[in-house]
Amino acid sequence: MTKGSLTEATDTHHTPEKKWLSFFCTLENSEIMKLFTTLKSLPFFEHDKQMNERFDRAKRIVNIINSNPENWDQWVPYNILNLGKGFIAQLKSFSELHQGKGIGAALDQSGTEGSRKKALSEDLDYIYSGCYRFICEYDFFQRDGSNENVHSELLDLKKVIESEYLDVERHLQGLLAHSVIFIPTQLIKFYLQHENILAIKRYNENTRIASKLNDNWTKEIEAKEKVVAELKEQLEDVSHGYNFVGLHKGFARITENKEEERLVLTFAMVVMAFIIIVPLFFEIWVLFSNPDTQFKIDSFFKLFPLVTLEIVLIYFFRILLVNYRSVKAQILQLELRKTLCEFIQKYVDYSKEIKTKEDNPLEKFENLIFSGLVSDSEKIPSTFDGIDQLTQLAKAVTGK
Known about the structure:
The protein is built from 16 helices and no strands. The protein has 400 residues and is mainly alpha-helical. The protein is rod-shaped and about 175 Å long. The N and C termini lie far apart (127 Å).
């Protein structure tokens, strides 16, 4: 990987993810790191003690990362996002240069040994500074007492790198200085943008919004409770009206039948009255229509059959009249029962409120509603003395 590409990766900023990225623990990256740690002596730098020591430290750090990649994926997310791909590409490039493969083989064929040596040196500088950045972030957020042996070894390597800061090349000094000066600030900014930290920062705003929503919900609930209470009253009124709807319908059907019976009786009485009156007026008209006719004793005998017929007809008319009065009395009782069915529920509720002394406030209602229809209008039980009237009726029927 070229110098420019690594610098570009280093300057890129990302926002934190909700979960830790799986980076070092992937099979491909693990194989690249393992290959780097197995490399032997550094070519072209056999007598450069500083370069070889730097190479050995880089291999030790990469080996520690590769020995527990899941842990490093968790604790160095910032540098994984901003440096990870470039770091792995640099390891791969260095290994190829070291073994004379890929880019290294191309440089060998071109006969530019100095170019290969320079590429190895530059790649090692970026790998070395990258390892230092990973150590800085790991140490920055590592909990005390967690994996003390590894942490202690990393701290020793970190101190050695920092102690040699003034002795390395200016290019490497710049990379290390960037890690020392800017990385802590960028780490803090990175983690301040994490969803958990943002949730804390939004706590007051969320609390205010929640309080406002709670007030709105309370008002809505109170308004809905008021509407429900009104609907409850309306439903109670409706239910009261329908509590005795069955009885009311039954009485209504009987009333219709009685109304038909009353109309038939009325028609029969009109016809009977006509039958009674017409023969009588016809006979009188016959007697007095002839001026020469004188009233004699035998004329009275001629009227005797007519009088007998009239008496019989009047008797039947009286029967019809009694039946008519009986039907009217029954219709009156049915209308009374229908009226009672409409208001009895509220009457019962009122009776309970005034704490009536009667054990069963519906007793009079039941006696009246379920009693038989009385033919005599004078013996119809009223709503005020239903029990007394029923007792008198019972005595009258039984003859006691």
